[in-house]
Amino acid sequence: MVEDTTHLLEIWVAGWAGCRGYETRREGRFPAAFRADTTHQWEYFAYDPTGAEFADLAAKTAEMPARVLTILTNDVARYSQLGQQNGLQVTSASQTMMIVDMETQDAEDPWLSDDDLKLETSRTDGVHHAVVRAADEVAASGRVFVVGHTAIFDKIMTAEAYQRRGLGSFIMKALAAQAFEHDVDSGLLLASLDGQKLYSHLGWRTVCHVLMLSTSDEGADLSVG
Question: Is 225 contained in some domain?
Answer without folding.
Answer: no
